[in-house]
């Protein structure tokens, strides 16, 4: 390629890079975690050991998965849906690789439309959830094969 052709090509590449928002370096939805998200995760973490209860949405009575998330957000003045299927649509979707503490993680655990499970992403590939009957609010790894294979969505509520 001669010099006359290389200048316009370089100009086109430079313009597309600048006008494209530096797409190579741009990582949307993965900025610093807001302090509000850290407080939200701490609130959920403080419920570790609280027993599971179907339909439960308080520390005194126990939590089901969506009840824990609903209650935690409520403690910070944030209104989100109470039911898992609706939580799975709340906020906006972000790529799993861009999950931030405070995001809602949604898993497919059954074949029915109601076969969803939710938790609060805590960072470090872990999440806090109220797993099932006979268990307590606990932390789990997103890298475990069970949860990794069932992740269907990450929902961002906080900006």
In words, what does this structure look like?
There is one protein chain. 29% of the residues lie in helices and 21% in strands. It is of the alpha+beta class. The chain has one domain (29-156): Alpha-Beta Complex (endopeptidase fold (from Nostoc punctiforme)). Strand 6 and strand 7 (138-141) form a beta hairpin. Helix 2 crosses helix 3 (65-74). The protein is globular, with a radius of gyration of 20 Å. The model is unreliable at 1-29 (pLDDT under 50).
User: Any idea what the CATH superfamily is called?
Assistant: endopeptidase domain like (from Nostoc punctiforme)
Q: What would you call the structural class?
A: alpha+beta
Q: Please indicate the count of domains.
A: 1
Number of strands: 8
For the record, the CATH class is Alpha Beta
What is the CATH fold-level name?
Answer: endopeptidase fold (from Nostoc punctiforme)
> How far apart, in Å, are the first and last alpha carbons?
48 Å
- Strand % is 15-25%
Parts with pLDDT < 50 across at least 5 consecutive residues: 1-29
Overall average residue pLDDT: 85
